[in-house]
Amino acid sequence: MAGVVEKRLAELGIKLPTPTTPVANYVPFVRTRNTLVCSGQICFDEDGKLVAKGKLGAGVSIEEGQRAARACAINLLAQVKAAIGDLDKVVRVIRLGGFINSAPDFADGPKVMNGASDLMVEALGDKGRHARTTVGVAALPLDAAVEVEGLFEVE
Fold first, then answer.
1. How deeply is 105 buried, as exposed, middle or buried, from its count of CB atoms within 10 A (0-12, 13-18, 19+)?
2. Hey, which residues does 151 pair with through a beta bridge?
3. Inter-residue contact 91 to 125 (CB < 8 Å)
4. Beta-sheet pairing, 55-56 with 59-60
5. Strand, helix or coil for residue 25
6. Most buried of 6, 57, 63, 102, CB within 10 angstroms?
7. Which of 45, 38, 51 is nearest to 14 (CA)?
8. Which one, of 151, 152, 143, 141, lies nearest residue 20 by Cα?
9. How far apart are alpha carbons 49 and 31 in whole angstroms?
10. What 3-state DSSP class applies to 102?
11. How many whole angstroms separate alpha carbon 56 and alpha carbon 24?
12. How remote is the C-alpha of 147 from its chain's centroid?
């Protein structure tokens, strides 16, 4: 039976995808005691296609970037569920790190990252409020528009 968080996700029309597997020499998550670190997730949708491809400020709009960041957050939650089995065991989202594939003069990365931050709060309520870093980068894997990593306190 789905827990509170998964019911909330269902109410939002969100079904968690099967977590992706690493394409290089790393693991999708590491748990040490009550801390869970999830590797960066790019903006795949439920069909495994990129929600947004390319650079913010050079063909990808802020709104498209926000949808991409939201997809990254959904993929993060899928990894968290794989790690701990039940999203209700998330005590707190500690930090999100966002990487925005940006044109050199694009300065609205924080607006893009709101797509991920908003999803965490929608799904987890106050437990989803977190510290955050947003960094514009020259390139991301597969030319994804956004990648998001996460740090969580878990039971």
1. exposed
2. 37, 95
3. no
4. parallel
5. coil
6. 102
7. 45
8. 141
9. 28
10. strand
11. 26
12. 7
The DSSP-derived string for 115-136 is HHHHHHHHHHGGGG--EEEEEE
- Give 137-148 pLDDT, tens digit per residue: 999 999 999 999
Give helix 4-11 / helix 109-124 axis angle, nearest 10°: 120
CA dist., res. 145 & res. 65, Å (int): 7
Cα separation, 97 vs 73, in Å, equals 11
Nearest C-alpha neighbor of 39 from the set 151, 145, 140, 153: 151
Q: For 99, phi and psi rounded to 5 degrees?
A: -120, 120
Q: What is the sign, positive or negative, of the torsion defined by CA atoms of 30, 78, 41, 69?
A: negative
Taking only the tens place, the pLDDT of each residue in 1-44 is: 579 999 999 999 999 999 988 889 999 999 999 999 999 999 99
Query: What are the chain's domains?
Result: 4-154 (3.30.1330.40)
Q: Side chain identity at 13, as an amino acid letter?
A: G
Tokens of 120: 């965490």
DSSP alpha helix (H) spans, the chain: 4-11, 62-84, 109-124
Give the tokens for residue 44.
């795949």
